């Protein structure tokens, strides 16, 4: 058992649950007709943002744990996918931090910025870059899981789909789909400690002879 073995299931399950709940709350907030600058000051938005921030931070640990467990089988393509997904997760965690702690203040002092009346080019570029790196990275992780076939098809496919949907900036529907995939992955049989029958050629220990 490597040092990440015990962290794989709890980190994946918690990150997935946080992304799923945060995505659901985000969809609920989309039904509110108030300006976005007012929505970001509500308790529901605060809960949503903190959930996604916690999910983003734990997602980094879950990504490392999942990769460490199957590093040899995932291979170079999987390693590249993990690097891109890790970079995207760090970027989106920074966005979630801003949404949790900075956006409520901007809603009071600069509402035109959040309501889209004024959108500096650097902010638009940053949002597009974050969505692109995060979405492409997790789509690649899903593809890598499907290629090596050591994970169940459904969670791997949902992780791939979640990455693709996450390519849409400022849309957390992709994170909700990704969250479902992570929750299912946490309960995947691949997390069992038993890795299957002994390899051919392994010599089983002889039972002790009775005196």
UniProtKB/TrEMBL annotation:
<feature type="transmembrane region" description="Helical">
    <location>
        <begin position="45"/>
        <end position="67"/>
    </location>
</feature>
<feature type="transmembrane region" description="Helical">
    <location>
        <begin position="12"/>
        <end position="33"/>
    </location>
</feature>
<feature type="transmembrane region" description="Helical">
    <location>
        <begin position="123"/>
        <end position="143"/>
    </location>
</feature>
<protein>
    <recommendedName>
        <fullName>DUF4386 domain-containing protein</fullName>
    </recommendedName>
</protein>
<keyword id="KW-1133">Transmembrane helix</keyword>
<feature type="transmembrane region" description="Helical">
    <location>
        <begin position="79"/>
        <end position="103"/>
    </location>
</feature>
<feature type="transmembrane region" description="Helical">
    <location>
        <begin position="150"/>
        <end position="167"/>
    </location>
</feature>
<keyword id="KW-0472">Membrane</keyword>
<keyword id="KW-0812">Transmembrane</keyword>
């Amino acid at each position: 058992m490597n040092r990440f073995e015990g962290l794989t299931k709890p980190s994946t399950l918690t990150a997935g649950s946080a992304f799923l709940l945060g995505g659901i709350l985000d969809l609920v907030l989309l039904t509110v007709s108030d300006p976005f600058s007012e929505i970001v000051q509500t308790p529901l938005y605060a809960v949503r943002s903190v959930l996604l921030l916690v999910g983003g931070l734990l997602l980094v640990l879950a990504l490392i744990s999942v990769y460490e467990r199957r590093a040899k089988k995932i291979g170079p393509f999987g390693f590249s996918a993990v690097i891109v997904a890790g970079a995207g997760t760090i970027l989106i965690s920074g966005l979630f931090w801003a949404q949790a702690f900075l956006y409520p203040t901007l809603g009071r002092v600069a509402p035109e910025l959040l309501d889209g009346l004024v959108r500096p080019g650097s902010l638009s570029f940053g949002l597009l870059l974050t969505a692109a790196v995060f979405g492409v990275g997790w789509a690649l992780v899903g593809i890598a899981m499907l290629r090596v076939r050591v994970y169940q098809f459904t969670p791997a496919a949902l992780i791939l789909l979640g990455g693709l949907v996450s390519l849409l900036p400022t849309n957390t529907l992709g994170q909700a789909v990704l969250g479902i995939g992570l929750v299912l992955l946490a309960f995947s049989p691949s997390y069992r400690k038993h890795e299957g029958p002994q390899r051919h050629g392994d010599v089983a220990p002889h039972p002790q002879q009775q005196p």
